Amino acid sequence: MSRAMRLSVEIDGQERLVTVEPGTEGSSLVTVKWSDRAYEVDVSRLHAGRFSFIIPAFGYVSHEVSCYETESGEVALGIGGRQIKARVADSSRPKRATVFQAGGDRAVTAPMPGRLVRVLVEEDEKVVEGQGLAVVEAMKMENEVSSPADGVVKEVCVVAGESVEAGGVLVVVAAGSLDD
Amino acid sequence: MSRAMRLSVEIDGQERLVTVEPGTEGSSLVTVKWSDRAYEVDVSRLHAGRFSFIIPAFGYVSHEVSCYETESGEVALGIGGRQIKARVADSSRPKRATVFQAGGDRAVTAPMPGRLVRVLVEEDEKVVEGQGLAVVEAMKMENEVSSPADGVVKEVCVVAGESVEAGGVLVVVAAGSLDD
Amino acid sequence: MKILVANRGEIAVRILRACRELGVPSVGVYSECDRRAPHVRQADEAVLLGPSPASESYLNIERILGVVQETGATAIHPGYGFLSENASFARECRSRGLVFIGPDAGVIQTMGGKTAARQAAIEAGVPVVPGTEALPDSLSDEELIAHAGEVGYPLFIKAVAGGGGRGMRRVSGPAGLLAAVEAARSEAGAAFGESTIYFERFLECARHIEVQVLGDDYGTVVPFVERECSIQRRHQKVIEESPSVAVTPDVRKALAEAAVALCNAVRYTNAGTLEFLLDAEHRFYFLEMNTRLQVEHPVTELVTGVDLVHWQIRIARGERLTLDRNKVGTPDGHAIECRVYAEDSDAGFLPSPGKITFMRRPSGPGIRDDSGVESGFEVPVFYDSMISKVVAWAPDRAGAIVRMCRALSEYEIGGITTSIPALVWLLGQKEFNEGRFDTGFLDRVLKDRSGESFSVLQPGETDVAIIAAAVSRYFADADLRTAEVEDVTLTPWRRAARLEGVRRL
Amino acid sequence: MKILVANRGEIAVRILRACRELGVPSVGVYSECDRRAPHVRQADEAVLLGPSPASESYLNIERILGVVQETGATAIHPGYGFLSENASFARECRSRGLVFIGPDAGVIQTMGGKTAARQAAIEAGVPVVPGTEALPDSLSDEELIAHAGEVGYPLFIKAVAGGGGRGMRRVSGPAGLLAAVEAARSEAGAAFGESTIYFERFLECARHIEVQVLGDDYGTVVPFVERECSIQRRHQKVIEESPSVAVTPDVRKALAEAAVALCNAVRYTNAGTLEFLLDAEHRFYFLEMNTRLQVEHPVTELVTGVDLVHWQIRIARGERLTLDRNKVGTPDGHAIECRVYAEDSDAGFLPSPGKITFMRRPSGPGIRDDSGVESGFEVPVFYDSMISKVVAWAPDRAGAIVRMCRALSEYEIGGITTSIPALVWLLGQKEFNEGRFDTGFLDRVLKDRSGESFSVLQPGETDVAIIAAAVSRYFADADLRTAEVEDVTLTPWRRAARLEGVRRL
After folding, report:
1. pLDDT for the residue A68
2. Which of D94, D97, D153, D169 is the most buried (most CB within 10 A)?
C-alpha cells in the first residue's frame, strides 16, 4: 500500500489522469491529484467496494460511496442514491480495444442476459438506424435491440430460443449509406 | 475442490473424526461421514461463512447456518437464532497445545478485551477457587475475573489502568491445596 | 393445516412470515436458479421444482401437486402472478381435497374474464367504463366501426383475456381502428391463446383507484379504505399509496358500497381487489377485479393495522371475519409503497439481473421493507424484475413522502442496477408532491425527459466521484499487493491459512 | 436550526433520521473508533471529537462546543446517556445561545437528584415509594437504624446521585444495615463523586411502569399510554412493551394525571419519562424521572403513531403541541421492544465486542429495527454494549410476541456474540407470555437456570451442527486450493487481477 498509482478516470465523458498517493503507514489519509487539483482524503473502507470519504477541502461531509465494476467493465458509483458510471483504467497499461468499432462493421450486442425471442432481420437485409434487429426477453420483458446505424445485415449470430449473455453479439451490421 | 478432507469436530464436549467428500465436479452435493453415519448434503453458500444445507436424510428442511471462527479459535455456529460452539481441527495436524494447563500453574486470562480496573490480589497471596483476582471493564460493565482453583498467586502480569486483549494473561495461579 | 407457498421472491417471503407467525407449517418451492433465494430458507421445508423457466417450475401444476403429496401439505397459497388466477388450478386443488387460499374457482373464472366481470358489475349496479361486450372475430369492419362509434373516441381496444398491457391499443379516431384491432387480436392471440377483444372508452385524466376486500365463508364482505395506484409506467404500477388525495369521504363510502355489492353478487371469498377509474368529477367506473393478493397490499396494512395475509389463511381455515368495518374503512395516517426493480432506468428501463454483492436495507421509524433478495443472491433473468418493496407510513402524506425519501437514501444494493434513482427523482416531482396526477402522468413526464439520466452529479460532486473511482481501484489493487488482506468477510481461518500457505490433506 | 447530535450508536442514527425527515441540517460527531459507524454517514456533516474513551470524546464538553462553533450548529440533541442529563452542560449551551433539545437546565437539576425529585412529587400530590430524604454521612448508627425502622424492611439503600444500579443495596433486616450503608456510600462515592444515600421501601412483586410525556413552551403537557419495563436483568431493562397487561383504564388515567401534575409543578418541557412502581394491588408510586429521551421510546411511537423525536425538535424550535391527548393516551395495538446486546449470555453475559462480519436485519410486517451498527463495523469496547433494538407491533400482545420471535429468527449478526439466544428463550417463557412477572422475575429465573446455556441443540440438530462445522471448514480451505475463488464480495477486477497475477505500477 506504500506506492503511488496512476489511473485514467472517465466520468461524464471527460477523461482525467489521476494519481493516488498513500499517506504514511497506518494512516487513513490518501492524496488524490489530477490537473491542478490535489485533495487529501480520509478513507474508511466499510466493506469491499464500500467507502466513506471525508475530504477536508469539502468540509466535514462523509461521502458514502459504493463502487462496483459492472459486467460491461464500467465502474458503477453509488452516490446519494444515484448510480454514476465511470471508466477506470490503469494508465500504464493499454486500453481495452474496442471490438469492431474501427472498421465499418458494427457488432450489435445483447444489453443484458436473456432469451432471444425473435430475430427481425435476415442476412443481406438493408436496415436503417433505429430499426429493430432482434428481441431479447429478460425478466418477463421483451426488449427490442435496434440498429446503431444505416447499413446492411452482414451476419445474424443467433437463433430464436437461444440464451444470450450480456454483451453477446446478436447481429453484425455493415454500416454505410443504403444507396451504396 | 476435488479432494476429501478429514477433520476433528468437537461439539457438546464430544469429538468425532469427520470426513468430507466432494461430489462430482460442478455438483453442489458433498458427503459427510463419521462413525456409522454418512449424509449426502446439498450445500449452498450464500456468503463467506453462511450456508444453506439441505440434507435429504432429514427431509426437505433448509438448514441455514452461519459459521464464524471466534477470537478464541472456536467455531461459532448460528443455528435457528442460537449460537453453538464447536472446535474443528485438521486431523492430520497436531492439536493446539494448551498453555500452562499441563503443570500446576494456571494462567488466568481476560475473557474479552477491555481495561483493567483493579487487581484484587498480590503476588504470593493465597487464593481459593472462585475468589476474585482482577476486574476488567468493557462496554461500561465491570467484570470480575476469578481464580479457577485454590492456590497461590505466582505472578501478577498487569497493572490497573492498562488495556488488555482477550486471552491476555492477567494473573498466574500456582494451583495446589492451601494447606501445602 | 400445512401450507405450500407456490411462489417465489418477496411475496413468498411475505406469506412464509405469516405462516410462521400463525404457527402454520410451511413448504417452500424453488426452481434451480432460486436455490439461494431467501424464501427457500424462510420456509420450514423447501423442495426443488425443476429447471429455472417458470413453465418448468412455478407454473408446473403437475410437479407442484406432486410436491404437495410428498410433503403432506394441505393448502396452497398462490401469491400473485404465476398460478394465482388460474381457475383450473384452483379447481384441481379443490378436487384433490386441498385448500386453495383464494376465492372459489368459479369466481376466479367469472371475474378473470374482463367482459364477464364487467357484466357482473353492471348486474350488481356498479358503474363500469362505457364499452362493449366481447367482440367476436367474425364481426365485419362496419360492425366494428359502429361499436366504436357507440363507445366514443378516444377508446381502448382490450383483450378479453388481457393483462400486463398486452393486446391493448389506444385509438383516437375511426381512421386507425381496423389496423389497431388487427394488431391487438394478433398480440392477444400470441400472449393468451385467445384473440377476442372488446372496446372501452378511454377516460382522460383518470386515476386508478382500487378497493381491497376480504370475504369469509359466511357471507361477510369487508371493504377497506382505497388505494391510489395512478403512478404507472406503461400500465405497470410503480408507486402506490393509501388513502388517495382525490377520494372524498363520500366517494370512499360509495366505492366501498359498490365493492360490497359486486362481491355479494358473485359470493366472493378470501382476498380480492376491485379496480376502478376515477375521473376528475369524482365519478368512478369499475375496471376489473384481481382475485388474489396484490403487490401493493402493504399500504392497506399500514393504514388499517390489519394483516391481510393472516386473514387470508384464517378465512381459508374457516374462521369468521371479525374486523371492524368502520375502522378498516378509514385510514389511520398515510402509507406509500415504492417498487424497487432490478432495472437500469437510465438505459430505457432495461432489466438488470445479476449477483447482489452487498445490500443495506432501509429501516427505522415508519419504514417497512418487504424484500425477496439478499446479499449473495443472483437475481435471475427468468422472472419479474421486482426485487423489493419499500413502504413508508406517517401521520400524513407529506410525512410519508419525506420518510420514503429518507429510506431510499439509506437503501444500497450493490452489483446490480436498480430503479432507486428513478424513484428518488419521481418523489421529488412537484406534481407528485401536490397529488396532481393521473394514470398517464408518469409516461408523459418520462417522454418529456426523453431519456435524460436520473443519476446526475450535483455541482461539486464530480470531484468526489473522481476520487471515489480512483481510490476504490487503488484499494482493490492494493489488496492484491499486500500479503495480509484486510477483508471483513475473510474468516480468521482463511486469513491464517493464506499466510501459512495452502494446506493439503 | 442546525442540530449537532452529541451521541453515537442507534440513538444517534435515530435522531439523524428525524433531522433528515424534518429537513433540518445535522452534524454528527464521532470518536476515533467510531469512524466507520453508521451515524457518521447518516449525518450531513461528521466531525471527529477525539480519542475513543468517552471522557475524551462524547463526554468532552469543551470539544463538543468547539465543534458547534466550527460547524455553525445552533442546537444540540444529547440523545440518552453521555451528556443528556448533565444540567451544567445544558446550562452552558443555553448561555451560549444554543438550543439544548431537552428540558430547562434547572428542571434537569431538580429532577436529576433522586431525593429532590421525590420531594417535588410529594409536593405535587404524587404518591412516592415510602422512604427517607437524603441521609447525611454525619448521621449516627442509631439514627440510621431508626430511619430504616420507619421505612420498614426489606428496603433499598440508594445513592442520591444514583443510576445503573450503582450505590444500591437491598437490606432485609436491621442486622445487615450498617455494613450495607458503608458499602453503598463507598460505591456511590467512587461512581458519582457523591456518597449521600437514602432509604426506600422495597416493594415486593412490583412492576416497573413508566409514563412518557411531552411538554411545550406554552404550558401544555401531554402524557402517553404507559410502558411496561419490568423485564430487567440487574436493574437493566431487557424487554419493554406498551401497554402493560397490569394497567387498567382507571390506573392509566390516574398515572397520566399524576404525570401531568408533576410536570406542571416543575414546568417540564420537551420529552421526559416518569418511572413508577406498580404493586399487586394496582397502587403506584413515583420512583424517579428521566429528563431525556428513553431507549424504549419506540414502543410508544408504535402504539400511538407519534414520532417523539420529531416532536422533541419541533418543541425545541418553539412549536406548540397539537397532539390529541385522548389518542396518544390510548394504545392502538401492542408493541414490544427487545434490546440486542453484544454480549455472550452463555458466559455470564460477558461483553462481546468485535468486528461484525455479516448482518441480516429482520424486516417485514410489523417489524422496526433501530440499529447502530452494520456489517464491517467493529463494535468498540468503550461504550454500552447495546447494538440494536427490535420492535414488533401487532393488534394484540400475543401477536406482537410471535412477530418478535419471527423477527429474531431472521436476525443474523456474524462475528460477535449477541443476546439474541437469551431473548428467544425469554420470549418462550410461560410467565412472560401470560404477563405474570415483576421487576425481580428475570433475575429469579436466571438464578434458577444457574448458567445453563441458552443455545441448546434440539434433538437431531447435533448432526446438522457437525455437518455445518465440517463443511464450512472444508469450503474455507477449498477456497484457498482453487485458483478461481468464488467469493461474492470479490469484484470482477480483483477476480481478474488474481487470475492474471498481481499488477504493479
Report:
1. 82
2. D169
Q: Which of A7, A46, A51, A79 to mutate to test the interface with D (most CBs of D within 10 A)?
A: A46
Question: What DSSP string describes D205-243?
Answer: T-EEEEEEEEE-TTS-EEE---EEEEEEETTEEEEEEES
Cell numbers placing C336: 406509500
> Cα–Cα distance between B90 and B17 in angstroms, integer?
10
B124 plus B68 within the same structural domain: no
Does A72 touch chain D if contact means CB atoms closer than 8 Å?
no
List domains and CATH numbers for chain C.
3-101 (3.40.50.20), 130-201 (3.30.1490.20), 227-243+285-449 (3.30.470.20), 460-504 (no CATH)
Does A98 map to a domain?
Answer: no
My answer on whether B14 and B39 are in the same domain is: yes
CA C134 to chain centre: 27
Structural domain boundaries, residue A17: 5-90
Count: domains in chain B: 2
DSSP symbols for D74-137: -EEE--SSTTTT-HHHHHHHHHTTPEESSS-HHHHHHHHSHHHHHHHHHHTT--B-SB-S-B-T
Whether residue B95 lies inside any domain: the answer is no
CATH number for the domain that contains residue B58: 3.30.700.30
pLDDT band, very low/low/confident/very high, at D498 (cuts 50, 70, 90): very low
**What are B5-38's pLDDT values in tens digits?**
899 999 988 999 999 998 887 778 999 999 999 9
Residues of chain A with C-beta less than 8 angstroms from the C-beta of C58: none
CA distance C342 to chain A (A): 9
The sign of the torsion formed by the CA atoms of C52, C57, C63, C68 equals: positive
* Alpha carbon separation from C348 to C344, C451, C454 (Å, rounded): 7, 7, 11
**One domain, residues B56 and B112:** no
- Give the angle C296-C240-D43 at the CA atoms, nearest 5°: 105
DSSP character at residue A164? E
Measured between alpha carbons, how far is C288 from D349 in angstroms, rounded to an integer?
Answer: 58
Q: Are residues A21 and A75 in the same domain?
A: yes
Residues of D serving a catalytic function are 292
Q: Which amino acid is at A23?
A: G
Q: Which residues of B touch D455 (CB under 8 A)?
A: 82-84
Asked if residue B109 and residue B52 are part of one domain, the reply reads: no
- Look at the block and give the residue holding cell 489493487: C477
CB D146 within 8 A of CB D122: no
E strand or H helix at C184, and its extent? helix C177-192
- Kindly state whether residues A28 and A83 are assigned to the same domain: yes
- As given in the structure block, the three cell numbers for residue D422 are 437469551
Residue D469 · residue B65 · CB < 8 Å? no
Angle between the N-to-C axes of helices C87-95 and C61-71, in degrees from 0 to 180, rounded to the nearest 10: 30
Distances C224 to C115, C298, C350, C393, D159 between C-alpha atoms, Å: 25, 12, 35, 17, 55
φ, ψ of residue D218 in degrees (nearest 5): -115, 20
